[in-house]
Amino acid sequence: MVLSFCDKAILAPMVRVGTLPMRLLALDYGADIVYCEELVDIKMLQCKRVVNEVLQTVDYVAPTERVIFQTCEKEKDRIVFQMGTADSERALAVAKFIENDVAAIDVNMGCPKEYSTKGGMGAALLSSPEKIEKILKTLVNGISKPVTCKIRILPTLEETVNLAKIIERTGVAAIAVHGRKKEERPQHPVHCDFIKAISEVVSIPVIANGGSQELIREYQDIEAFRSVTAASSVMVARAAMWNPSIFRKEGSLPLEDVMRDYIRHAVKYNNHYTNTKYCLCQMMRDQLESPLGRKLHGTQSTLDICEVFEMSSFYESCQLSQEARKASLNINNQENLEPDDDNEENHDRIQMPVKFERKDYLPQVTPKMFLLEWCRREKLPQPVYCTVQRTLDKFFRSVVTVNEKKYCSTLWDKSKKLAEQAAAIVCLRTLGLPEGKLGEEESILIQKRKRGNQDESADTTGPEEQVKKRLHNNEKFDDSKD
User: Fold this and answer.
1) Is residue 111 flagged as an active site residue?
2) Which residue numbers delimit the DRBM domain (predicted)?
3) pLDDT digits 0-9 by tens, 354-383
4) Nearest-10 Cα torsion for 218, 224, 225, 229
5) Whole-prediction pTM
6) What are the structural domains, with CATH classification, of the chain?
């Protein structure tokens, strides 16, 4: 199916915002087409294409293991890949590399920011009509998918119309026009008359852009902006970033509902928490000093974000679902927890889904400390932790070996320290030992008395007291990372 650019409401390309969760959310709310954020040709050519069977996505992964672009079946017929380029051959190489996973290819010729223009890309292309023509013709003749471009207006109406005519002759499927000059910013009025003039002289669809600041507040405003510019379609940027439900014909939703819908997509597709947090902060731009805003500002992981929005159970269910899917697919790659050289199977491990929450434990002690003290008391070798990090989201999982048996949590965690604590908890719970959790004080005392009855000469202080005593005496702990 060839993508049409007539009578469409479109999510604009936005750096750091136009990632998969935001695009899917916009589609959920009624957007017809979604653009990804601008991605530079050189970076894309360094990527490898990976089919992620666990997430059911296609990932373009950089040599650093960072996912540069991620897409899925749901958006395949409506996602436009926006490219930053200043070279026709590189542009074609990227387009051929990615065309089977997207609905169209767009060339960014409008971004005025330095990260784009310094390489001769974005708005820098506006002063090189010959280069524009070469890049677009090369793409149109070289791939089977539609090609579009996005521009800003030039200093005069005549120059802008002439450039639009040059672009039309290249055979592109549509042209998006941001109605501001490259030196103008959102506080400057959008030049609807320039967009209208282009719409009246070219035969290809014109996509009007730039109305968010002053013209677009609700869904009905999208149609009004299209009408005043005589455009075929409308592309919405900041208004959609602030509340993606602007695409709903029935009207926008309350912001907290929208944010929770966004988080669901972010968790489902393992979006990096820094990007998730950034997008949520953009939605809360006027409420960052509210209690909810301050809590969001303090988050350091996807789980933290879910806790702020009372979605921890959703997060846990997604994690368990992904682990189950991974097991059913029998995926044996570096994301699996196989720290031993002999690559032994997971059945030799005792596993349970647990996490270490600092607030739930006694002050100044941890499960790792309790486990270490128990091993010393039982004259066993000290616990050995083997921790791995998965590349997808940089989370950790750890296996602890105690008395030649292995224990681990089935859940991944945001830091190595937390993963090791979770493994220690699994071991302690399996052995029926206290782990230092609040409310366990009576259990610790009972065990202390039992040991005292067994050997009156033994040191009968409980794990917590022993830890404090050793700390007081400045004894060195192998558990010193905590």
Assistant:
1) yes
2) 366-433
3) 889 888 888 778 999 999 999 999 999 999
4) 180
5) 0.71
6) 9-249 (3.20.20.70), 254-331 (no CATH), 346-472 (3.30.160.20)
